[in-house]
Design a protein that fits this description.
Elements lengths: L11 H24 L28 E2 L2 E2 L30 H30 L4 H7 L4 H7 L4 E3 L6 E3 L8 E6 L3 H12 L4 E6 L2 H8 L9 E4 L8 H10 L8 E5 L4 H9 L4 E4 L4 H18 L6
Parallel strand pairs: 5-6, 5-7, 7-8, 8-9
Antiparallel strand pairs: 1-2, 3-4
């Protein structure tokens, strides 16, 4: 069922053996085509002929799942001819004194890796649309929920009525432009990840008020739809930058949300006195921090009517 935890009936070692054998067969076939080298013809050690059917594939009567060949129907054992768990793949043997074959294999394996990454993105999107969340997608790839989010940002849109991850079905007419004025690298990464889950965002990060003004006043720079501002920064801090922004006729209509660790009453009062649109204290809890950023994004970029440039 969508959203349930990922469970596979094969051990990681058995799955790795199946994958190693399949990739080895494919790379060998492609290398032979690339080089047209007869030395690469003939069956690989412990496996079928390079142009023959894959173990357990349709030609051998074995089951398939969406066209992917598997060895044992229950996935309880590695495919015939696959390397034993922990053993080197049978295609990694040195090609004698001629490096051509090894270099061709290396070249093709690099392209296979890139193709795999592209396909992983497509399948991750399909899994999200089927109802899987980042925890399940991460588990399928052997990474954490945060690792899956970093690898494939923007898979989900968040609903505030239901705290569940939903796949994004629509995209705005253009990506929203967000200027993040934040000198803490870790917080900036978390903010970027949280925003990416809400949809297409052109995020520009600067580390202090001086850099923010330079960016905003550079001719041809896109006017941000939202400015997210920290208070404590070098050179020009967020307090001073806010005063400049809200007294500048060209910039004062841009929504500015202060996102800071400070809970000091004077900072809250000072921010609103300088006409900040909102003041949000950074939560300590990771999920609450993420939700706070997404709430800011949802209100100012989805709900509120923004001023025209």
């Amino acid at each position: 069922m969508p959203g349930t935890n990922f469970v596979l009936r094969a051990t990681p070692q058995e799955t790795a053996a199946i994958a190693d054998a399949a990739v080895g067969h494919l790379a060998q076939r492609l290398a032979r085509r690339l080089l047209d080298a007869p030395a690469l013809d003939g069956p690989a050690p412990g496996g079928p002929a390079p142009d023959g059917p894959m173990p357990g594939g349709p030609a051998s009567g074995g089951p398939t799942t969406d066209g992917l060949p598997w060895g044992d129907p229950a996935l309880g054992a590695a495919a015939p001819g696959a390397a034993a768990p922990g053993a080197a793949a049978p295609y990694a043997s040195a090609p004698g004194d001629d490096p051509t074959q090894a270099l061709a294999m290396l070249h093709l394996l690099d392209h296979l890796q890139q193709a795999t990454e592209r396909l992983q993105r497509e399948v991750a999107v399909a899994a999200a649309r089927a109802g899987a969340g980042y925890p399940q997608i991460g588990a399928a790839c052997g990474v954490t929920r945060q690792g899956a989010r970093r690898r494939w940002p923007g898979l989900f849109n968040h609903s505030h009525e239901k705290r569940t991850e939903r796949p994004m079905m629509t995209t705005p007419a253009r990506p929203f432009d967000v200027l993040l004025v934040e000198d803490d690298i870790a917080d900036a990464m978390l903010i970027e990840e949280a925003l990416s889950e809400r949809g297409a965002r052109n995020l520009v990060q600067v580390k202090d008020g001086v850099a923010a003004l330079e960016h905003l006043r550079t001719p041809g720079t896109a006017r941000p739809d939202l400015i997210v501002l920290d208070l404590n920064m070098p050179r020009m801090n967020g307090r001073d930058l806010l005063k400049v922004l809200k007294t500048d006729e060209d910039l004062q209509s841009i929504p500015v949300v202060v996102l800071t660790t400070s809970t000091a009453p004077e900072d809250v009062t000072g921010a609103y006195s300088s006409h900040a649109n909102a003041y949000v204290t950074k939560p300590v809890n990771l999920e609450e921090f993420e939700q706070a950023v997404q709430n800011i994004d949802a209100f100012y970029l989805d709900t509120a009517t923004r001023p025209r440039p």
